[in-house]
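Table S2 (text version). Query chain:
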Amino acid sequence: MAFQPIITAMTLAAGFGKRMRPLTNDRPKPMVELAGRPMIDHVLARLASAGIKRTIVNLHYQADVLENHLAKRAQKPAILFSNERDEILDTGGGIKRALSLIGEQPFVLHNSDSVWIEQATNNLTALLARYDPDKMDALLLMAPVKTSLGYDGAGDFFIEPDGRLRRRAQKETSPNVFIGVSILHPRLFNDSPQGPFSINLLWDRAIARGRVYGIPFEGQWMHIGTPQALNDAQKVLQNVRK
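Corresponding structure-token output:
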């Protein structure tokens, strides 16, 4: 079967946003405002600019607030909802529930709290251009730890010379952090568990088969996980506009 251009995404938006409290006491984390508009609107605009025609948004915490906001949107991409009101399913379980809406073709997966400032490269367009369905079950976008805002961990993966990813061992430090944006093939979910589970389980299986790759991110990545990170991102964006 010929590879078709990727036009579908899934935006992860079901989480409780506990680290963002008290801002998430009355709204889901994707509805917290950054630079005058909800964070999820930044994500949707970026997806549309890369040619994504539709995205599936999963719902759990404060589901009605998010659904009502998105239902009013007239801009692209088109929005479909994957309902997790009965049970939050974690990343892997949430994507698996949405597969009937996603279909059989590869798709972009985008966290709703991942925003950035581009440099010369359009990172999402670069990710789409590098994806090879014949050899990749997943292609992840990786940012430098040292320049990432709102992240203070030890990194996630090493990018091998051929582009494959190796997960950081417990006592290692990696220079790369996964920014929550990737391309996945639905076959990644073959023989996956039922109910809640993390996508990390499936990545580790695919890494063992040599089927997970990564590419470097270029620009200023901002993980908006806490009120402090939100304030820091606001300042960065204000400086960019001056």
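Notes on Table S2: The longest strand covers residues 176-184. The chain has a mean pLDDT of 91.
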